[in-house]
Specification:
37% helix, binds pyridoxal-5'-phosphate
Length: 364
């Protein structure tokens, strides 16, 4: 049997007519930037998340970067980020001129360990960026209480967590702002690059919108030295078409995850831990294994696609050599890098395929 790590085919079959209709709508209107599709998506996504404002932007990195910028974070400031995340989280901080400060995750949840945040705070610290990694909520009560105690801003990185909840409330609603990515492979994906920042703060939303539109509050009037990062009409229309299907697709991911967690019975393999407060959306189903590379080869040989999230931790990437963080300094992130293996997870996986993955892992 051949099982890819991810395929969009079953989803595309399901959404075929909706997507074509969305394209026709935009093409017929002949209006491509800043229009009714963008407005419609922003309204619908804000409502979906349970926040007042949504600002469509060009991608997830910009969604985070513009939020930090709008909050006034820049040179000389420090922002706390998890040591185990996609590099975009740290790059958003770097791009505004601030310094990312890495805090280790809890190895059971893969998410930032709130108990370690206090020790990383100093007089330069301005914000915390929790990442709801692999689609599982961080412990937001603890993180918000630490942020409030020190007067820090909170920008949630929700790029992998569309629809995930913490104590029944959607992620992206706890901090000052939250960034979402609609990269095609995300739980809610466009047919290209796209992103959005959500917030309950009108002033912040207006500033983010202006910053992503050449710093302009109205045409040819520039109040900031902004950049160009907008959600175009075609991508917005595709997202309008896909959003109503998101919950159903997340439910499907949960079903696959549950079968994995119940079915994987190999003492060499650790399946993901889900705390009581969290209902994950399983952007990634990551198992851990000391013999990760051998397990990966075993699965690949059986025709099963896999991935690693992430094979090199951010502090050991070439681009962050200037931070001089030696190997061994962030042992939990390094341990996850060395042991995590992501197994197939996509809408439309059949029971037979799920069982084949489970059996293949159990026979390792
Ligand atoms: C994908 C991702 C981003 C960046 O999103 P893009 O749309 O690719 O710019 C940021 N943070 C995390 C955790 C991500 O997974």
């Amino acid at each position: 049997m051949k099982i890819p790590f991810v395929t969009f085919l079953p989803m595309e079959k399901e959404l075929n007519s909706d997507i074509r209709e969305a394209f026709d709508r935009v093409f017929t209107r002949s209006w491509y930037i800043e229009g009714e599709e963008d407005e419609a998506f922003e309204r619908a996504f804000a409502e979906y998340c349970g926040v007042k404002y949504c600002v469509g932007v060009g991608n997830g990195l910009d969604a985070l970067m513009l939020a930090l910028k709008a909050l006034g974070i820049g040179e000389g400031d420090e922002v706390i980020v998890p040591s185990n995340t996609y590099i975009a989280t740290a790059l958003a901080v770097t791009y505004v001129g601030a310094t990312p400060v890495f805090v280790e995750p809890d190895i059971r949840t893969f998410n930032i360990n709130p108990e370690l945040i206090d020790a990383a705070v100093n007089e330069h610290t301005k914000a915390i960026m929790p990442v709801h990694l692999y689609g599982q909520a961080c412990d937001m009560d603890l993180i918000m209480s630490i942020a409030n105690k020190h007067g820090l801003k909170v920008v949630e990185d929700c790029a992998q967590a569309h629809g995930a909840t913490y104590k029944g409330k959607k992620v992206g609603t706890f901090g000052d702002a939250a960034g979402f990515s609609f990269y095609p492979g995300k739980n809610l994906g466009a047919l290209g690059d796209a992103g959005a920042t959500v917030t309950n703060n009108k002033e912040l939303a207006d500033k983010i919108r202006a910053l992503g539109n050449y710093g302009s509050d109205y045409k040819y009037h520039h109040i900031y030295k902004g950049n160009n990062s907008r959600l175009d009409e075609l991508q917005a229309a595709f997202l309008v078409a896909k959003l109503p299907h998101l919950d159903k697709m997340n439910v499907e991911r949960r079903r696959i995850a549950q079968l994995y967690t119940e079915g994987i019975r190999n003492p060499k393999v650790i399946t993901p831990f889900v705390p009581d407060y969290s209902v994950p959306v399983w952007h990634i189903y990551g198992i851990r294994c000391k013999e990760r590379d051998a397990l990966e080869k075993h699965l690949n040989d059986k025709g099963i696609g896999t991935n690693k999230h992430y094979p090199i931790p951010i502090h050991l990437q070439d681009c962050y050599k200037d931070m001089n963080i030696p190997k061994g300094a962030l042992p939990i992130a390094e341990e996850i890098s060395a042991t995590e293996l992501s197994i197939p997870m996509y809408f439309g996986m059949t029971d037979e395929e799920i069982q084949y993955v489970i059996d293949s892992i159990n026979e390792f």
